[in-house]
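Lab notebook, bench 4. We co-purified these components, and the gel suggests they stay together. Before we commit to crystallization screens, I want a quick structural picture of the whole thing.
Request: model the full complex, all chains together.
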Amino acid sequence: MDNMSNGTLISLSGISKFYDTGKVKVRALRGIYLDIKRGEFVGVIGPSGSGKSTLMNIIGCLDTPSSGEYILDGEPVAEMTIHQLASIRNRKIGFIFQNFNLLPYATAYENVELPLIFAGLPGQIRKEKVMHNLSIVGLAERADHKPTELSGGEMQRVAIARAMANDPEVILADEPTGNLDSRSGREIISIFENLNKSGKSVIVITHDMNIAGRCHRLIHIKDGAIESDEKNHSALVAD
Amino acid sequence: MKILTYKFLLFLKLIGREFKAQKLRMGLTVLAITWGTISITLLLAFSVGIERQMNKSNRGLGDGIVIVWGGQTSLPYQGLPQGRRIMFRTESGIIDLIKSRVSGIEMIAGEFLRWGQTIEYGRKQVNKLICGTYPEYQVMRSHYAKEGGRFINQKDMELKRRVVYLGTEVANELFGEGVNPVGEIIKINGIPFAVIGVMIEKLQDSNYHGPDDDYLVIPASTYLLMYGDPYFDNLVYKVKDGVDSKAVEKDLFRVVGAKYRFDPKDESAMWIWDTVEGAEIFRKVFLGITIFMWFIGGMTLFIAGIGVANIMYVAVRERTREIGTKMALGSRGGQIIFQFMIEAMVISLAGGFFGILLSLAITAVFRMLSMEGDLELMSNPTVNWPVALITVGTLSVIGFLAGFFPARKAASINPVEALRYE
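Here is the predicted assembly.
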């Protein structure tokens, strides 16, 4: 409850992750301590292989840490069953992937509807939420299009609408602009900024310094540990 | 409960959407199962049909009958030399003797034969075999008359009537096809006879004095009046059900041997054609063929199974990323497995349904086609329901397992790995 009261959404203490590939043991994360408050706009940067994707997966409850404690929105994740984890991912976390991961056979509408179906919401509410989120990303008119009929930027916007569908606590984006041209990338990042302004926590993993420069807080990861964690004054000032 | 039902309906909606998305793959899998089912069902349907037709044509000669001819002794016996001819004298009461002394015989009849007799109807004239015999001959040799006619009977025998029963071919030659000659008068060697019946066409694969549709039958008493043969040409008897025809044959040699005085062990004293034994050999041969057919069927099933397993396996594998995405969005592993199970079930049920339906249709077409001659064996295929259902069941289980295991694996690995899968 303490975490809740001071607005802490994500609290990692001593998180480590090992991968045992049989011959070699890889230490992807080495004792991470990190608190993220509600409404923060955080960029996670670092060279490839630094462990930032692993960190992201653990925060997103897609993966479990080898050791350490993770408290999400006041609840210790380590004690949850896989069903509870599925439910947490469904309600509290909105994922955005580098390669969009839209279902190729489903329309934009159906893709956004997917997490709402998993949540078991009734049809009318699903419809409202799908159309609301599609209009936030400016794609309400393209609801009936399949991913193959959309540009890369549009696909990522559909993915954002899908991530937002269940009104999650936090948006987790893993290299969201990695497969996009710079103009589409800028569009995506302004959507993130708008979401953040409306109160959503946003965590973006990126190589792209243009994007990193727009985040309010920058966390550098190197060799599985936090190298630096600082406020990005230029972005804050620009606001 | 209401919420659960609702969630289930939502889930079915998702599945329906994915079915639509994979029409081609689903269609191919359904086709594979349909094809497998048709192949095996038809293979065994024709095998059963051919066996039936062969049995039927086997029985064309008669069901479980034995034909006996007089022979020549090869062993001296009671002071008599070898090389004596054994013939069944008409007046010797040999038929009654055998009937009363050989217990395994159900019925027996003698036959008199005369080839090349002149048969006339109006201005038409043909030369045919005349067979003089007894009413028992009808049952033993499957001589059944077409509607409106009959075979010779006891009354004909007693009254020595001049009545004649025609083989189908004889009737066709004299009267033309499709004409009912019953009641017409024909002449045999100039003597008028009334036609009392025409044989129903039958399949016949063996004979000992020409095909049954190519001779005329008259009562033995009438025959003797005309020709006065001193000897039967041969005897025909039918063994009682469940009695070993070999034992009956032994009895016959004992009884006839005692009367005509030949050694019961003298096998050349009488010539025997035991069709019961032939039928037994045929049954064994066909058992071999059936086993072979089952083997081929099993192989076909196996190959079809591999096809189905392969398609299902690939289907699950190529959707691993999709499974990962869904799990990231909050779907549960169980739902994903259940989805593939439903998919496998729908596919195999549809495939089995079409397979059985098409098999029934194809066999029905074959039965409708009137096939003559050599193809006649193909004309009666019969779908064997247990085989059809076992085939569908096996393919379904294979498809099910081939979908279930990779799906369970995909759903149980951590979503990160599923998402990373290329």
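Residues 65-275 of chain B form one domain. Worth comparing against the SEC data before the next meeting. Residues 314 and 403 of chain B are 9 Å apart (CA to CA).
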